[in-house]
Structure formats: structure tokens, C-alpha cells
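User: Design a sequence. Structure:
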């Protein structure tokens, strides 16, 4: 017997605003839903003795939230000097332009369409602000533009939606791809293997203190889902008018209906992967 509540991915409390590591503080956005869990985590990251801070994922276009992020930085004696995005989904990026206006900062992202200012971001880049060092780790799969930020000084990885604080991630077909996603999990696993990443600061849900265990859980979950999808196809879903619906009914019966649109995208991503 296992205690399901003790497994990674099972509910273990929610995301909270406040300090998570020595350098990272969460300001939780007020946009909870079946897809966003407690809401979007907006991360303020700074060296303790620096006046300059970096904000990762300002979140939705919510004036109260954006003002709260600015206020939280100011209360810590810091000024926001740069805005970064993990990917372009609106619950992370919709407020970025307004936040950049409020703070007079540039916005850097992998997708050029999301940037404000001259500088982008790419795999291997190191962002240095006020002595803070963040390293860009390409982690496509949830979306093609998904990146993570390693915070080496705290042995932490800001993962956006690539790894969440609980539950599992949607591979948002067709932009998201399962093969790329599995490669990204392997990348994160290798970072945990050499000790450079110990904890995960996710885009939704609570901080993950044991990154290696969570990534292992994600890999097992993905393999199990693929087996279930294969089985559902063999059991008749493949012959139905709408195989996606057939797989949804057989495999995702335990998932709340509010998540079905996202589950359909994940099923499409899995069908594409299995046919590739
Ligand atoms: Zn997303």
C-alpha cells in the first residue's frame, strides 16, 4: 500500500505568497481555476544584498496583482529591473506589457513576439542582474517556447508550466510536443542528478522541495498514460468516429470535466507521438 497523498503530484496544500528560497519570493496571482490551480506564481528573484530584482511571469493582466508585485519588491527594498517570461500562455504573459510599463523594464522571452526591448533569450544564456545569475534552460514540450530558469545560488529551477507544484502538465498540442516534453524532463532530471537543481519553483502550485522525485513521478506518469492510451486504442477507441473522445472516456474518466479541453490536447499530443 502506498499513501497517495504523500506521492508527488497529489494535493499537498496550495501555493502561498511569500519567500520560497533565499532569493525567490512568490506573489500569487488571483486567477485560480482547474487549469491554473491556486493561480499563477509570479516570482520576484534578487540577490539578498542587491537593490535590483528580476520578475519571472508577471501573470494575467490584473492591475491589482501587478501593483502587488511592484509593492512586494519595494517592501523588500528592491526595484524591478527586468521582466522574464517562461512562455507565452496568457496566465503567465498577458500582464507583461503593462508590468513593463509600470516598472520601466524590458521583457525578455524566447518568442520574439513576446519581447519588449532589444534582447531575447535563448538556451544557455545567463541573465545577470544586480549580481543575480539566472541561466536559461530550454524545456520545450508544454509549449514550443517554454523555457526554465536555473537559479544556481539557491539550487532551484523556475519551471513555468513544464513541471507544476502538483498535478501534471498539459502538452498543449499542436504547439506542444510530447517527444520534446520527454526530452525536457530528461534535461531536468540530469540537472537534479548532478545536484545543481534540488527544488522547483513552479508556475502553479506549491514549491517542490524534491525536484528529482517530482521529475521521476512525471516520467512514470507519462509512461503510464501512454500505455493507457495504447490500450484504449486497442480496446476500440481507434475504430470510433472520434478516437480522441474514445480515449478521453476510457483513460481520463477520473479527470474533472473542466480539464477535458486540456486533456484532449494531451491526447492529441500522445496520438501524434505514438504515430511518429
Ligand atoms: Zn502554460
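Assistant: Done.
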Amino acid at each position: 500500500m502506498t499513501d497517495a497523498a504523500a506521492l508527488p503530484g497529489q494535493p499537498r496544500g496550495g501555493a502561498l505568497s511569500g519567500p520560497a528560497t533565499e532569493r525567490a519570493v512568490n506573489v500569487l496571482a488571483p486567477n485560480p481555476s482547474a487549469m491554473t490551480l491556486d493561480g499563477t506564481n509570479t516570482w520576484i528573484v534578487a540577490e539578498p544584498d542587491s537593490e535590483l530584482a528580476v520578475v519571472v511571469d508577471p501573470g494575467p493582466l490584473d492591475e491589482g496583482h501587478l501593483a502587488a508585485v511592484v509593492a512586494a519588491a519595494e517592501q523588500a527594498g528592491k526595484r524591478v529591473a527586468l521582466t522574464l517570461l517562461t512562455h507565452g500562455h496568457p496566465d503567465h504573459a498577458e500582464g507583461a506589457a503593462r508590468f513593463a510599463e509600470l516598472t520601466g523594464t524590458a521583457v525578455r522571452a524566447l518568442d520574439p513576439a513576446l519581447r519588449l526591448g532589444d534582447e531575447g533569450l535563448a538556451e544557455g544564456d545567463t541573465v545577470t542582474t544586480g549580481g543575480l545569475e539566472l541561466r536559461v534552460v530550454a524545456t520545450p514540450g508544454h509549449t514550443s517556447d517554454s523555457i526554465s530558469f536555473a537559479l544556481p545560488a539557491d539550487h532551484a529551477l523556475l519551471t513555468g508550466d513544464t513541471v507544476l507544484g502538483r498535478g501534471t502538465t498539459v502538452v498543449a498540442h499542436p504547439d506542444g510536443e510530447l517527444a520534446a516534453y520527454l526530452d525536457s524532463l530528461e534535461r531536468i532530471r540530469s540537472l537534479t542528478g548532478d545536484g545543481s537543481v534540488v527544488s522547483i519553483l513552479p508556475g502553479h502550485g506549491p514549491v517542490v522541495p524534491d525536484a528529482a522525485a517530482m521529475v521521476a513521478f512525471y516520467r512514470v506518469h507519462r509512461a503510464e498514460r501512454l500505455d493507457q492510451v495504447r490500450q484504449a486504442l486497442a480496446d476500440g477507441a481507434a475504430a470510433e468516429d472520434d478516437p480522441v473522445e474514445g480515449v478521453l472516456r476510457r483513460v481520463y474518466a477520473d479527470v474533472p470535466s473542466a480539464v477535458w479541453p486540456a486533456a484532449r490536447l494531451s491526447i492529441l499530443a500522445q496520438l501524434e507521438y505514438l504515430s511518429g
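Confidence is low (pLDDT under 50) at residues 1-6. DSSP finds seven helices and eleven strands in the chain.
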